[in-house]
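Extended Data, panel c. Modelled sequence:
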Amino acid sequence: MKVLFVCTGNTCRSPIAEGLLRRAATAAGLEIVDAGSAGTGAWAGAPASEGAYLVGLERGVDLSAHRARLLTRELVAESDVILTMGHSHRVRVEELGGVDKVHLLGEYAGQSGAGAEVMDPFGGDIEGYRVTFDALGELVDAVVSRLVSERSGDQR
């Protein structure tokens, strides 16, 4: 199963979520999960932002090899589940043909209302990145629980 996380620049939120999903899926025994990320306005090849990189190091998620990718129709087509950080990202995925596989990350993880969108820490201080990292950690844990449940046939 290919899970794609989408944000704007693919330098903060989506690479963090990708790293967290890789770690959590491995811990849960979900080797079939292939995590990736992209951005609706990404500058292809850009590294993770300094804040995301530093907080990742603090929390055990190495983003040193990350390079930003622009969201394309091909990435949408090859993904099974696409989880976006905000509504605008969802709209772009839908425009690229992903209507049947795109969800707001928060909604997929059981959140509703304003809490379904993930705050963008870009340009902020390191504490903002920590808050976003922790929020993504909780959401990704809920995604893994959902995937484990669906894999075992215990859909809620």
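Residues 126-151 form the longest helix (26 residues). This feature is highlighted in the accompanying rendering.
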